[in-house]
Structures are given as structure tokens and as C-alpha cells.
Amino acid sequence: MKFLRTALMFFVISNNIFIFFYGIYSCLNASDYTEKIKHRVLFDSIKVIAYQDYEDNRYKTSSGSGTLSLSGLNAFYSYELTPQKNLYLKAGIKKNGHAITENHIFPDQ
Questions:
Q1: Can you give the residue ranges of every domain in the chain?
Q2: Is the pLDDT of residue 12 over 80?
Q3: 39-45: long-range contacts, CB 8 A cutoff, minimum separation 24
Q4: Of 11, 83, 84, 94, which is least surrounded by CB within 10 A?
Q5: Residue 60 has pLDDT above 90, yes or no
Q6: Distance (Å, whole) CA 97 – CA 54
Q7: If phi over 0 gives left and psi between -120 and 50 gives alpha, with beta otherwise, what is residue 90?
Q8: How many C-beta atoms surround the C-beta of residue 88 within 10 A?
Q9: Rounded CA gap, 49 and 76, in Å?
């Protein structure tokens, strides 16, 4: 009977340790996932802001640029009209000296 109680206590303790380490792993993994979501939201936001800036200045200038900062991330954009009157949009994020960019071409409307 004592062996059964000892085995049961060992099982409970080892499960608690496993749950503790799994909790730490889940917290670290959630932090990475949150960072990826923050990047994606900032990318989507900067593209919308760039297109809105183009629409606001459509008849004044054929090119423009701007920046946006959000919780340590710096986003930038630039746009210009191509000779075929298509809109060329470049948007990106700068973090830790690295830039991640996306290029888009929107057809003439």
C-alpha cells in the first residue's frame, strides 16, 4: 500500500512539473505569436495609410512618402505613379536595423 501511495505521489508531482514547463513554453510561444500579429497589423495599416495619402494628394503630386511608429516598430511607405498611370506602392517595417518590405502595383482606376 505504501508503494502505491508513493507511486501516486510521484505521478502527481511529475505531472505538476510537466504542467509548469508547458505553461512557460505556452507563454513564450504566445509572445512570438503576438509579435507576428503586431507586424501584420502594422503592415496592413501602413498600406491603407499610404493609399489614403495617395488619394488625398492625387491631383497635387505623383509621388509621396511617410512614416508611422507603433510600440517600437517603425513603418514606412512611398508611392509613385508609373508612366502607365499605375500606382506603385512600397511599404515596410524597420526593426533592429532590418527592413521588411512589400511592393504592390495597383492598376489605373
A1: 2-106
A2: no
A3: 39/73, 39/93, 39/100, 42/68, 42/70, 42/73, 42/75, 42/93, 43/75, 43/91, 43/93, 43/102, 45/70, 45/75
A4: 83
A5: no
A6: 27
A7: beta
A8: 15
A9: 10
Q: Where are the alpha helices (DSSP H) in 1-109?
A: 2-56
- What is the residue-averaged pLDDT of the chain? 84
Question: Would you say how long the chain is, in residues?
Answer: 109
Alpha carbon distance 95, 42 (integer Å): 12
Q: Is the Cβ–Cβ distance between 80 and 53 less than 8 Å? A: no
Average pLDDT over residues 62-79: 87
Q: What is the 3-state secondary structure (H, E, C) of 35-54?
A: HHHHHHHHHHHHHHHHHHHH
Q: Does pLDDT of 78 surpass 90?
A: yes
- Judge contact between 74 and 60, C-beta under 8 A: no
Give the pLDDT confidence of 94-105 residue by residue, as tens digits: 877 788 888 988
Question: In one letter, which amino acid is 20?
Answer: F
